[in-house]
Amino acid sequence: MSARYLMGIDVGTQSAKVVIFHTHGDVMCSAQQPLRTLEIPQPNRAEHPDDDLWTAVQQACRAAMARFHQLGGQDHQLLAAGLCVIRCCRVLMRADGELAWPVINWMDARLNQPYQHADEYGNVRWVTTTSGYITHRLTGQTQDTSANYIGWWPMDDLRQDWDAGKMAACNLQRAQLFDVVRPGEILGEVTSAAAQASGLPAGLPIIATAHDKAVEALGSGALAGGEALISLGTYIGAMVHGDAEPRSSDRFWPFQAALPGRFLYECMGVRRGMWTVSWFRDQFGAAAVQDARDKGVDIESLLSAEASTVPPGSDGLITLHDWAAPAEAPWRKGAIIGFDGRHTRAHLFRSLLEGIVLTMKNHVDPMMQALDRPLTQLVISGGGANSDLFMQLFADIFGVPARRNAMRSSAAIGCAINAGMAVGVWQNYQDAVAALVKPGETFTPDARHHAHYQRLNQQVYQQLHAVLDPLLQRLSPLANV
């Protein structure tokens, strides 16, 4: 039997990634296309410039397919492609399938309320998600996954279909919405026009997945009861797989999982989480660039190595991650406190990482308690998992082992799993996970460091919002004059 392959198309906030897998689990080839910087036309607005999502998908697909052919792959050996595109965005389309308005990103305050048409949008025929839009570009179909409708959408998550009773509250009509299918079902096939634009084979089945974090959860192999996935992206989220029916709590939200018939429970996360790390590197790392070149390493490796020499707690330097304020507290700002003469760039870099992990612990612990599910292990995905320091911080601060997989891009794996199940490569999802998810290193907690972080968290970090919120509320009008 000739070799067979599956594709994962994973489009996040910062890039489009395409990975082609052998059905036995190995990566054949991949490509990545960075997205352009978000446009911020005014405060609390965030849009993707021009048609950037589709442009990036085309470029990443063309590059991946070129490499696929160079390595001897033939179009008929590519069985299907799973599609996962950034969640919590809104796409306004004209009747001809073109954008009526630039894609509205999840950080835009307009998404905190029901859709409201504005004259500047022009003629809007369809209101959909990013996955619906890219599906239409690839297949010409007005279909989307039911599992990427989060927020002000009239979706019945239990039935995984539209809820007529929610239409009015969301200010939408059924005629404005795409049809939906469930994760693991076929959305359509690549059209000849899309094949010419993207390099994908015409007729290639495009398979529905879920929202991006749910697809990461599937692709990370975090399926056991006590395992939690922490996804290190522009938005850092934490989640666990749930039951056949969603439970409600003020500690987490239920979402449709990429595992059909299951739900995902997700707690609050860190907005602009890894963006903050990139922000520090870009704004304050100029002096480190030459040092990194002299040592023959990248700047992230240099900063991590320096920060590894700093003691737990960064000698009292503490970072509070509110670079993007939540909707319920728009006055919040990020804060770094505790400076004294000892502190260097290494202290500040370590403090940024510690602040992320402490914030996540303070969200994950209440979720696990509400689920009555003791946390036994973390699975860390995303590029930040490449850092040994970051991995050890997760283990030390949470007090449980932290594992990273051999491939950090868990969403691409989840896409390929859904795709393979749709075309009958595996009989069940457990076999698919066993084939594609390759565990990597596990970091075990240092008991002494864990005890120190527990004291720091309980005595200081958990008190910061109560202390700083009144000051930041008074600062807000003064900062926006």
Strand order of the largest sheet: 15-16-14-13-19-20-21
Q: DSSP helix count?
A: 14
Structural class: alpha/beta
Query: What is the number of E strands?
Result: 21
- Uncertain residue segments: none
Share of residues in strands: 15-25%
Distance from N terminus to C terminus (CA atoms, Å) equals 69 Å
Model description:
α7 (286-295) crosses α8, α8 (299-308) crosses α9 (345-370) and α9 packs across α10 (388-398). This protein has helices spanning 52-70, 130-139, 167-170, 192-198, 212-220, 273-284, 286-295, 299-308, 345-370, 388-398, 410-422, 429-436, 447-459, 464-479, and strands at 5-11, 15-22, 27-34, 78-85, 91-93, 126-128, 143-145, 155-156, 161-162, 179-181, 186-189, 205-208, 227-231, 237-241, 253-256, 263-266, 318-320, 335-337, 377-381, 402-405, 439-443. It has 14 helices and 21 strands. A hairpin with a 6-residue loop joins β15 and β16 (263-266). It is globular, with a radius of gyration of 22 Å. With 481 residues, the chain is α/β, with parallel strands linked by helices.
Furnish the topology, listing elements before pairings.
Blueprint: E1 5-11, E2 15-22, E3 27-34, H1 52-70, E4 78-85, E5 91-93, E6 126-128, H2 130-139, E7 143-145, E8 155-156, E9 161-162, H3 167-170, E10 179-181, E11 186-189, H4 192-198, E12 205-208, H5 212-220, E13 227-231, E14 237-241, E15 253-256, E16 263-266, H6 273-284, H7 286-295, H8 299-308, E17 318-320, E18 335-337, H9 345-370, E19 377-381, H10 388-398, E20 402-405, H11 410-422, H12 429-436, E21 439-443, H13 447-459, H14 464-479
Parallel strand pairs: 1-4, 4-12, 7-10, 13-19, 19-20
Antiparallel strand pairs: 1-2, 2-3, 5-6, 8-9, 11-12, 13-14, 14-16, 15-16, 17-18, 20-21
Helix pairs in contact: 5-11, 6-9, 7-8, 8-9, 9-10, 10-13, 11-12
